[in-house]
Amino acid sequence: MQTSNGRSINLRIWSVFDMIKRFLIVALMIFTAVEVSADELDESLIQSSINPVVLQQGKVLFEQVCASCHNKDLSGASGFNLKDGEWVHGKRPTQILNNVKNGFMSAGMPGFADVFSEVQLRSIVSYILSKREGWDDIQYKLYQLDNENDQVVTEDKLIKSGPLVNNLADFAIPEVQHYFIEFEGDFYAPKENDAQLWLQWGAPHEMEVFINGKQVLKGGTPWFPTWRLKRGKQRLKLTYRSGNTKPGQRNLTVIATNLDMTIKLFAVSSRAKTIMDDKKFEIKATSDTVVIRKRIHSLPPLSISVGTPAKLNYAFNSKTCSINGLWQGDLLNIGPNISGRGEDPSLPLGEWIFKSPQGIEHTTAENQVCSYKGYQLLNSEPVFNYAIGDTNFSVTAMVKHNNKISFLFNSNTQKKNRHFTFANF
Length: 425
Ligand code: HEC
Description:
Blueprint: H1 2-48, H2 52-70, H3 93-102, H4 118-130, E1 134-144, E2 158-163, E3 179-188, E4 195-199, E5 206-211, E6 214-215, E7 219-220, E8 225-228, E9 233-241, E10 254-258, E11 264-267, H5 270-278, E12 282-283, E13 290-293, E14 303-307, E15 312-317, E16 322-333, E17 347-360, E18 370-378, E19 381-388, E20 391-401, E21 404-411, E22 415-421
Antiparallel strand pairs: 1-2, 1-3, 3-9, 4-8, 4-10, 5-6, 5-9, 7-8, 10-11, 12-16, 13-14, 14-15, 15-16, 16-17, 18-19, 19-20, 20-21, 21-22
Helix pairs in contact: 1-4, 2-4, 3-4
Bound molecules: heme C.
């Protein structure tokens, strides 16, 4: 009995010391764990930004809750752009995660810590990381040259250098007349599509491009030169020598575009950013149906687009007299025409359900040519009129929900309704 009592007292005394010791060890562990895990968490978020399963989950959640303020393509609306290199509240993956958890209540963004699980929140952050585009950690170096013919760039001519916080090549930095400037940093180009750098009014300018240390050959035309990018992440360097260009023209517009130059993807220089922000001109059908005649990217010319408040939009092509596109989301960004030539098409702001060469039309004998007669509004909905031979036709659409649209085809000889219902929306 005694022995067992004694032992149990001993045990109790021991356990108090033990508890204090354990407490200290655990406290120390937590302390170091936090230190280590911020880095580890950064790394694991970056790792999962290439994991298709995580990205799919992140995409779904992002589109459900974040897209209303940050846009489905992350380009920003009432909330900031989340795919460019400009981070106001911190760019580290863990900072982004904390920002999503805490929100910015005074600026209008709620916190999501209680809305989603940790796993869900991390999937959203990984999705955001996977969408990065443009420069990261960009640095500049400015060298003063002796005169306009001076081509010798040596370290003793370096007069200024440093990081550029908004991650854009700022060609307006130099305050000297003759100079050579260099921008270098990590660069994210699209992963799934080929892209290039495009320089507006480039003919007089000595700009050179280096990717992963190797010079890239100049393509395009003398006035609009281009340089092919690699896909995904790369090391990019741009150099520029002022030479005998006019000082007022040295603030270069450099943009990443797709290869056929129909889509301006994102700004690479700060001048380009200002221009592109001005040119973002989105047209959305909020309370009424909207009809726009503008060239649309990836649809044939002469397509007239119709946006409905239910966010189902279609295009009627006045050459083929067919419905040659249907997309869900907002209507169009008609602003990307930045080269000033009026040739760049508008971009649909949603996702295609179908597009040309697919289409819906009145079944007619082959090789019959239609002639378009214009449209009139009937209860604010457009009715497109056309004729094939002696027969007059019309087509209009009725949208009941955001997943059902009916095209009503009429002619003086027959009437046909075609309904389209979409699942999963
Ligand atoms: C109701 C609108 C709204 C919603 C919904 C919203 N945000 Fe925001 N978000 C904002 C605003 C506004 C800001 C800018 C805050 C400021 O001005 O400081 C912001 C800022 C951010 C930032 C900081 C960007 C930076 O530059 O540092 C991140 C990251 C972010 N949001 C992610 C998200 C994610 C992820 C979701 C969905 C889970 C989301 N937001 C949902 C409005 C919103």
